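Try this one yourself first.
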């Protein structure tokens, strides 16, 4: 896997490069001080992953994210927590706050590596569903995926990743379509990129849901419906 670093602060670029050397053997193809220079580079070069600052002159990271190739993944790196929910509109792999913690960086890089591998595999298809399970076709076989085993479903580019207790399956389908196939009693959409199984929520704040080791953003648009359903209206977190 290769990457580029885009940040207008020279020290931030050097610190991130040093941290990446500690957690992975990822190839850093280039570092850029502006999004405009990075945009020129990715037009001529294949880039798997971009570590992207947000507050930058000329073109900010969110504007740049709208122009990157569909296959390129993003990890935002910023000192500003208020952009976190907005970042998931760009199918960001992760959102790291400065100063970047090396353990969080390691987790983000491993997640990006997994997703790049999934995207490179032969894509699965959902063939049919019943009231209790889905049939997913992969490698010329049909696999039965019980709804009760699904932790959550994540939208990524033009695909969804079904996270179960035992595996992750990528499927060519948008999040809205697969949500319509899931039982409303215990599945709920909580952001632009996630549908979750309410039974697997370990804990939550007013912005984040935690399922196993996953941190799932709770979008403002979906927040009221989530708390109304999950707590029968007994919680009202602002």
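Now uncover the answer:
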């Amino acid at each position: 896997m290769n990457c580029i670093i885009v940040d207008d602060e020279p020290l931030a670029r050097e610190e991130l490069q040093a941290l990446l050397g500690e957690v992975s053997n990822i190839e850093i193809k280039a570092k850029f001080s502006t999004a405009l220079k990075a945009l020129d580079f990715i037009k001529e070069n294949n880039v798997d992953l971009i570590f992207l600052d947000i507050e930058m002159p000329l073109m900010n990271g969110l504007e740049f994210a709208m122009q990157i190739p569909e296959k390129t993944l993003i990890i935002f790196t910023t000192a500003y927590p208020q952009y976190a929910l907005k970042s998931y509109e760009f199918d960001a792999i992760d959102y790291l706050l400065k100063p970047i913690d090396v353990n969080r960086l390691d987790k983000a890089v491993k997640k990006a590596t997994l997703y790049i591998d999934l995207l490179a595999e032969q894509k699965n298809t959902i063939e049919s569903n019943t009231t209790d399970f889905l049939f997913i076709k992969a490698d010329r076989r049909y696999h039965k995926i019980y709804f009760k085993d699904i932790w959550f479903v994540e939208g990524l580019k033009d695909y969804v990743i079904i996270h179960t207790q035992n595996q992750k399956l990528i499927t060519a389908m948008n999040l809205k379509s697969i949500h319509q196939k899931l039982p409303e009693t215990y599945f709920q959409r909580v952001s632009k990129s996630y549908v979750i199984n309410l039974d697997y929520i370990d804990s939550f704040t007013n912005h984040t849901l935690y399922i196993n080791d996953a941190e799932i953003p709770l979008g403002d648009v979906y927040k009221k419906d989530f708390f109304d359903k999950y707590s029968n209206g007994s919680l009202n977190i602002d």
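Discussion: The two ends are 40 Å apart (CA to CA). The first strand starts at residue 2 and ends at 6.
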